[in-house]
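Box 4.2: Ligand-aware structure prediction
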Amino acid sequence: MSNKKTWGGEEFWGLGFEFDPQWILTDEQKKLQAALIELCRTTLRANAVESDARLVYPRKNLQELAKLGLLGLLVPKELGGMGQNHVCAAMVVETLARYGCASTAMCYTMHLGAVAAGLLRHHDSPVLQDIFKRIDKDCLIGTLSYSDPETGSHFWYPVSSGAEETPNGWRVRKKASWTTSGGFADWYIVQTTSPNFGGNYANLSCFLILADEVKSDPANWNGLGLRGNQSGPIEIDNVEIPRNRLVGPVGDGATSNDECVDPFFLLCSSACWNGIALGMIDIAKSHTTRKTHVDVGMRVADYPTIQDYVGECIMDTNAARALDYQMGQALDAATNNCDWSLHEEPSAMPRAQYLHWMWQVKFIAAKNVAHVSDKMLHACGGTGYKPALGIERYLRDAKAGWVMGPTNEVLRQFVGKMALLGTQSLDYWNQSLNERVLNNELKKLDADGKRQLAEKLLAEANGKIASVA
Ligand SMILES: Cc1cc2nc3c(=O)[nH]c(=O)nc-3n(C[C@H](O)[C@H](O)[C@H](O)COP(=O)(O)OP(=O)(O)OC[C@H]3O[C@@H](n4cnc5c(N)ncnc54)[C@H](O)[C@@H]3O)c2cc1C
């Protein structure tokens, strides 16, 4: 295989392989990368422009990925998939975002998250096995629907959702404020409170929902960037589904989140942000080495300021990539190279130990892409500000990184809080009392205030009123 990066037979116009950590890829993965770069050149990159301009779902691109067997990237070989690992998943998403289409990369990220959540519990599930066996042949696109309109980016807290047991299965209701591929996916992994949750929002379950069970209104989708990814609201309106559509046991939601949904989303979405950053550096290289100022006889790339911009962006982006790939390698090592048979033992959670590392990966990648998009716009000047160069689209796509849940505000607080106060202090489901805050607030009440509050609390404890205002 050539060590030179090519683009339609010519030398690639952006950064070459000397700035890519090729040493972490196997020969098979390098071959896949080369095939994907070529597919991006011939097809995906042009479709990205159409998706962005007209809010078109990138189905054509996803169909092309299916032809390469990429929808089954993580699916074990026994089920007809590629049986690939975490590093490969990150490489594929990064390559899609960098050379092809960032919206496709995000739809694919959510697809891989859904595949991982399904593979975690496919062992006793003929319905999931059937999807995985047909995933590329029938181009079966999956997605994750978690975010709730009432709790925003706290996607692990689905208050507008629920499920009940029925004689034949489950009745599921879900309102999701955002779902990538919403209305376009063929299958959805959906998280709701468990049928028996009894007010405990930590008690969550996952269900497999099929396309015709989902209400959506794609015509209403609009957004600053990633405009092809069609992340509109969806609703599952008390749909009755068969018993075998429960993914894993009742109450498996938190385990599924920590072991699969979060690790894969954080690994692959970070790869998407890194790919966008690299895509902008590639464009900036191409543009600044061609554009000349006749008065001084210099190309834009000859100015030391521009060289500094590019140098710093490469180093920061490669630091973000190095962390993402390093965590991909850590996940590979912990899972015998992404061997799903480990989960025949239902309590196995080899990935979850790295969750706080995955938070760091996403924070760094999303923070970096915001900075790089700014600097690469500056480097390309007014030409970058106009859509034709492509920097402008990437800049808008990049903005999704920071705000996608878990948002960067939430992540930095998680990491700082965990480091300072311990894991228990994270209190995802608002269950542990912060006595310091409570006592401090109580100090502010006078005797009357305390009496009124005590009466209110007593009434509530005795079931006379619903809640303390
Ligand atoms: C392009 C795109 C694709 C998406 N795709 C999917 C998908 O496929 N599936 C899915 O389930 N969801 C998806 N989402 C939703 C996403 O994960 C978030 O749920 C959503 O962006 C939250 O939006 P919001 O307006 O409710 O933000 P809010 O949650 O209201 O956040 C507003 C602000 O409050 C901050 N904030 C929130 N909580 C805290 C806290 N505890 N401490 C400090 N600050 C806090 C936030 O960081 C942010 O700055 C997608 C979002 C985008 C942008």
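In the box above, the bound molecule is flavin-adenine dinucleotide. The pocket of flavin-adenine dinucleotide is lined by residues 110, 143-147, 152-153, 155, 176, 178-180, 226, 229, 231, 400, 403-405, 407, 409-410, 413 (CB under 6 Å).
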